[in-house]
Amino acid sequence: MFDTYEQAIEWIHARLRLGIKPGLSRMEWMLERLDHPERRVKTIHIGGTNGKGSTVTFLRSILQAAGYRVGTFTSPYFEQFNERISINGQPIHDQELIELTNVIKPLADELDQTELGGPTEFEVITAMSLYYFAKMSPVDVVIYEVGLGGRFDSTNVIHPLLSIITSIGLDHTAILGDTYEKIAFEKAGIIKNGVSIITGVKQPEALEVIKKKALEGKSPMYQLGDEFSTNSRESLERGEQFSFYSMFGQIQKLETSMIGSHQVDNAACAVMASQVLANYYSFMIEDEDIRHGLTQAYWPGRLEILSENPLVLIDGAHNEEGINALASEINSRFADKKISILFAALKDKKLDKMIASLEEAADQLTFTTFDFPRAASAEELMEVGSNSGNINITVNYKDYLDKKIIELNKDEILIVTGSLYFLSEVKPFIMNVLKNK
Q1: pLDDT at 4 over 90
Q2: Fold type of domain 5-296
Q3: DSSP state string for 290-356
Q4: Which candidate among 141, 197, 369, 427 keeps its CA 20 to 30 Å from the CA of 224?
Q5: Separation of alpha carbons 201 and 277, rounded Å
Q6: In the chain, what are the domain boundaries?
Q7: What is the pLDDT of residues 174-185, one digit of tens each?
């Protein structure tokens, strides 16, 4: 058993060797042995290709503004491992993580010896979170973010009050399928019979799959652009403004503190969710709670401005849709700036269209790499690029940033983007460079 935080974390990360093992059998086995903690918590389930984390944060912040104690389960972590299991935005304590690991390890050891095989890192953490919220630190409601897909994701053992599918994009195609329909089928796996589904999905072919699943399960469906909508959208210096309309009423001039027109869609899904909770599940949520919650919501690494002078921004755009959203914001917000982009990615991503969009958006594009097993090398990224004059590589991103941040002019912006794993590693370094500048 574990006595220190470091021992617990080392054991959890060691489960990464088992990779991704879709299916719910190992989760169901562990939950049976834990006396079914998933039945003791009220939950909300959020899936989608992009926007899951932001939507979790918007909804958590709204519920918190209304006075509720809200648990969240998210991935990957950005600054600290513990943040994956949080209450009201505060990560669990190190000692609590040690206790949880000591509860789950004997089960994992036993599972290792069965025909089901040992649980993965994500399955272990999911089980830990359910035990925590059910037995160690009860909350009013827990918002669960899907890890991968939905149908066979380890979080899909919950029976939520409502489900949200934010978007569909061509990511993790080797596992989820290579068309919008196939990926939508996997995402729609979180829809439960009779449980409301809210969605911001836009592709007609993906929507048809979700509608069919909702219809089969008699699950009320609320679709962005149909049952609820936004207008009067306007970009602010540090966020977005929009008005919201639904069958439950309208709220004028809502503001978010997160940049990006795509964040309006995520916020709208969260607002719709709060209205469904208020009207059908007796949650006491007022319009002012919604307004306050949206302005207070913060999710690191999503079009996050780290410095105004020099202008430095980071964004976890790690797939084609995320890169396109970033490029759109560059064109609308920073058209008068010279754009320098530092990019690192995982080699199992579909990189060609991502890199093509970055080339078009950037005046200078620099590829780099970082210490992660699945990270692409700078040379591998360069091979995908067009070898145009505005592309170069650096194998040491720290040396590049040390020099680049000092040299930035007032008419220039530095954007660091790509894998969230890269951003979680690079952000503290950037903050230190800025502090010493």
Answers
A1: yes
A2: UDP-N-acetylmuramoyl-L-alanine:D-glutamate ligase (3.40.1190)
A3: HHHHHHH---TTSSEEEETTTEEEEE---SHHHHHHHHHHHHHH-TTSEEEEEEE-BTTS--HHHHH
A4: 141
A5: 21
A6: 5-296, 304-436
A7: 667 779 899 999
